[in-house]
Fold each of these.
Amino acid sequence: MAAAKLKIGVAGLGRMGKRHALNFFQSVPRADLVAVSTPDAQEREWAKEQLAPSGVAIYENYDDLLRHQGLEAVCVASATAVHADQAIAAINAGKHVLCEKPLATTPEVSQTVVDAAARRPELKVMCGFSRRFDESYRDAYAKVQAGLIGRPSVFRSQTCDMLDPSGFFVAYAQFSGGIFVDCSIHDIDLALWYFGEDGDSKVRSVSAVGITAVEPDLAKYNDRDNALGLVEFADGRIVNLYCSRMMAAGQEDTTEIIGTKGKLGVNTQPTANLVRIHEAGGIRQEVPQTYWDRFKKAFATEAVEFTDCCLNDTPVPVKLQTAVAAVRIGAALQESMISGRKIYFDGNGGRADEPRS
Amino acid sequence: MAAAKLKIGVAGLGRMGKRHALNFFQSVPRADLVAVSTPDAQEREWAKEQLAPSGVAIYENYDDLLRHQGLEAVCVASATAVHADQAIAAINAGKHVLCEKPLATTPEVSQTVVDAAARRPELKVMCGFSRRFDESYRDAYAKVQAGLIGRPSVFRSQTCDMLDPSGFFVAYAQFSGGIFVDCSIHDIDLALWYFGEDGDSKVRSVSAVGITAVEPDLAKYNDRDNALGLVEFADGRIVNLYCSRMMAAGQEDTTEIIGTKGKLGVNTQPTANLVRIHEAGGIRQEVPQTYWDRFKKAFATEAVEFTDCCLNDTPVPVKLQTAVAAVRIGAALQESMISGRKIYFDGNGGRADEPRS
Amino acid sequence: MAAAKLKIGVAGLGRMGKRHALNFFQSVPRADLVAVSTPDAQEREWAKEQLAPSGVAIYENYDDLLRHQGLEAVCVASATAVHADQAIAAINAGKHVLCEKPLATTPEVSQTVVDAAARRPELKVMCGFSRRFDESYRDAYAKVQAGLIGRPSVFRSQTCDMLDPSGFFVAYAQFSGGIFVDCSIHDIDLALWYFGEDGDSKVRSVSAVGITAVEPDLAKYNDRDNALGLVEFADGRIVNLYCSRMMAAGQEDTTEIIGTKGKLGVNTQPTANLVRIHEAGGIRQEVPQTYWDRFKKAFATEAVEFTDCCLNDTPVPVKLQTAVAAVRIGAALQESMISGRKIYFDGNGGRADEPRS
Amino acid sequence: MAAAKLKIGVAGLGRMGKRHALNFFQSVPRADLVAVSTPDAQEREWAKEQLAPSGVAIYENYDDLLRHQGLEAVCVASATAVHADQAIAAINAGKHVLCEKPLATTPEVSQTVVDAAARRPELKVMCGFSRRFDESYRDAYAKVQAGLIGRPSVFRSQTCDMLDPSGFFVAYAQFSGGIFVDCSIHDIDLALWYFGEDGDSKVRSVSAVGITAVEPDLAKYNDRDNALGLVEFADGRIVNLYCSRMMAAGQEDTTEIIGTKGKLGVNTQPTANLVRIHEAGGIRQEVPQTYWDRFKKAFATEAVEFTDCCLNDTPVPVKLQTAVAAVRIGAALQESMISGRKIYFDGNGGRADEPRS
């Protein structure tokens, strides 16, 4: 007697979509990948070779995916611009939803997903903040919860990609919401998590600066390739973000959580594995080349746990409201970086002209 | 249309047996755990709770397991003393076999498994040297193969367990073959692998020394809690082994492969994950507490790949003859440690009285 | 025939003054410590025991020190409030000067030292930015100069002291100029050095935030115990500073210089020495407990090289104007942190109301 | 009133001799380098340029050095073959002696130095085991003494030089006593120190193996370029040595002291300084290129402390008898490596034919 499995479909088969599809296909024992959809003919060709032989249905239109017989859940892994629409359509069709980050590039649109989900409380709707499922970040979180570092007060975190000499990310910048929304969103989510602000952040101010050190063309899309940000919370905590698309060694995503009694570092000396190479020039450790290399195990855990939540009817581990708060902060940092001005908040989610005393 | 799955049974549900059973149960999509066997009533009770609800059959007798309808493969995870008998019985019954290390505590008995397997070349028979499936050891192997360090010439490796204050390992020493056969066998297998001696080692001499630093009672079973060994190969390569049951920090299994042009270190600064704890006293990194903590992912890969070999009819990645060579070396080191004498080989697998010139 | 030695006096025998005095006394073969001065009776008592037996003169008044027969150079290591006055008096008296950082807590007063020095070009006048004499920072600088990381574009650096539970730094905050002027001044100097802006920085804006996580009383002196700052340079480079008085493990002064082709980290995993302690709980490395522990060798090198410059009539390795630029940036960061406002510069050293486009 | 200084001469101005001479010349405030001697004309030329201008006398003959007016101490840094003779001549002439390691390549000749010193107890005679003056080794020693790791029981240590492609060490092997006497002597001395066996070691057995992986010509001088050794002590402690002349990255001298309650590692991940280079290929740390690079600070401390002992009439920190014990062990390891046989001791310093029970 086989246990029940979650019938899931994946929308979008771009870089991340393929990975999500393969994850549900191979690495989630309790999930049954039954269908995928993508408007891109080449991506459908890939699916025909990789997935169709095992009976996975392939659709051009997302609406057809939603109508797939017996479908219970959808993983939205399409372009950011349609995340919110597709998530809301799935919710309205009564499907559980795992939506890639960010929900949208503005907090207002992101909020519409939360509102839709609120109308269907029986559904599981989660934004895929993959880092929350990484075992090192979880170990650090458990240590914070256990009081090991006292009150976490300063949070410093970076998402730094290896330089892609193809310049792919320039074109991508038009739609990504900018480097703070695309990259630092992960660090912002972590800050909200570690600071216990899930779903309810009280930001006082943000400020940011950025440069185009290697890709001047980013400027025309109001983006930068290296940026630094500061976020102040009303309860006396501060956040420092760094995002970059210029790393030479690989993906360097590091985090420090500094408390009144100690500090935790996560991946502060990035490493791909336990091998050290002693050679002319010294001792070398390799670094994961991509975000996926660093977090592929976390993505698998995310898929497994989302599936478990749907099947067991338990709450998802990431509050959906947090995904809105993270976009609000990320978008404000992006605005501050471009305008050159510090942005103040009034404590009720609105803007203020002046610092609050 | 679901793909074919390998129907597998697990023999023995002790510490390692439970882990193997759960691995095949949960983490190997192409395997179907259909049955388990153990003479121990408590272990069967565990299986009734954990496995029976999903339809896994539970047997007291190993022979009944072998007769289970449709069984195609067996994982032998019982006490070392019965490894060889159970593996041979399974082979004779026409089952693929994954046998926990060592095949036996003597090379002669180990060879009987190889001989049995040779009579059934259509079966997959593999000794489970888990470290070969660890991604860091594999990365190091690929780098050696790529010529990164020139000719690997000196191999230094250790298997050092955290001190178990219960003294469990004293009683265990009666049956384990001793610390070199129980612990260093992994390092010996790695040396044979990295030196390209798989299945065909040409050892010139071994010598070893040991002490009982924390557990004097080990002496009565001709065992030690800390031991060092040297192995000389006929082609001018040397091996240095360290095994211990006395570590304070955790499982410290480290390896260095030293070649004419460079050196590779694997896990030379043991670490459980990417978290660093800054606290009074300094910066601390946690260490895996057990062999399982360190290698659980490798065990899962081992199970997945063994399953693939059976289903796809491809060669297993570890030559069975190597498992005999490793026991021969380990047993000779144990003998040298106890007798205090260096042991010489004649180049044809036999002993010699003198060093060969 | 003994070589000529530099006759030097040390003003101030507080914590740092004692160290400077002992350095010149013991570790600078070409220097002759001939006199010290301090208004503090206890400090003079210390000098009577430690220095007087070897013939070092002890003065209560700084002016008497300056009049000491044959004195050629002065090390100003007194309270920050009198740095500038004492340095100028020494210059006017025709003495070479090594002045502890900062020259003063405002750029205006700092500039008066530069002006005084400009009138006596034959004298060596240097602000003691000790980190420039550390061998790791120097190695990193040489690598930057050699082009190893392309154009240095992002500079991240921190000066983080171990928590002093005595609260000494609260009283100290009244006179220190604040945490950015007292601590981050080192990081700012390094940024100017690595960015090639020595003596001539073109800052566009600064912004900062801070909190009192462990010492609320700091607020009454307009200071904080943890602060983060951003500095934008006109030529498209950015700086990120972190300063703290709350570290649990020890002095954590780390720096990252990020260029278009690579990155250099200095002390990113702080360590006191090469010892690693394997114990229950994991593997631990100790961290220097104080700034002095971390940089004592650099202070000795600073003293040796300053002495050599005086005796050999060669230029000092740190431009004096840089010390003013560093105070200007540090004081602006402190102001921004307290006011909550971002501060803009007009490109000519003056303030602006708006970001420059 | 200047303090008294120790008038010292240096014998031998080869690689190490030059360093010792410069050390006493520049870095030892209480020493006065008054004379040097060397039979080598080129080395005397070097001394004429570097030392003579400051009044250091230069001799061709060692006997003339000993007759230098007012000479109080000698640093013997000549070829190993004349260490003992020169040390004894200095002792007989009433000079304090700092002798480079080893005293000689045989224990018998080494003992003659101890005997000569015993007849002149008022003189300070020390063998320069530089590692004892390294701050990390000292920190580890203090921790052992404080009981941090329980009873030190297993000692693993290596002296591994970077490959010198000139093959210099082949010719050198004729006179060095072999790799165990030349390189591992340091590790043996450390083992005796940490195990509390200073001057009085009770070895049960030694065994060793070696290969010529990169320099086959070494075989003709009965030497090897990579060797491993085991040493057993009568009180249940064991030592594992590794020495090599083949490292690619640099000087890799690492040590582990393993006790019943913990373990200390010294330099287990060798590093030249605190800089980390992030570049294509990963993160790299440089390694000291030579023994001198790694230990130059220890050599300076050694010179300072030896000078202090002579001037203050305090005991030298390294027992002279230990230097004999270290040579005895090193020479036996070398013999075992070449003969292929394990060597047993009878507990009274003599050899035995059989292992003692």
Amino acid sequence: MSELATTLGRNIREKRKKNGFSQDAFALAAGIDRSYIGRVERGEVNITVEKLYEIAAVLQCEPTSLLPAQNTL
Amino acid sequence: MSELATTLGRNIREKRKKNGFSQDAFALAAGIDRSYIGRVERGEVNITVEKLYEIAAVLQCEPTSLLPAQNTL
């Protein structure tokens, strides 16, 4: 489990909660399996850039806003 | 082949050339197969966020600087 995946997952979880999505509602809106979202948020998955954009679209934010700066890792 | 992968690949190629790397030298520095780099640059691969950070580290730039804005896709 990498620091990058962990931080990215935490950022996604925070943004999801801020937007008032449960994991279930978010999974439904994103068309992604609920257990997969859980694994992403726990940093257990290395998601693709494509998936990052899909998640950011549902969260109505820029994909880059979810990514940690290189020098913080 | 998605618009995202195509644009990301083009950005990586431009940055690689600006930094004076041949594809061979870049592949060596990044520890990535040369044919894989070619496929990334042509937008034929959906790379992971992890791989994006590795590529950006070799190119000495922020990973986010290689990503297109959501609304340009």
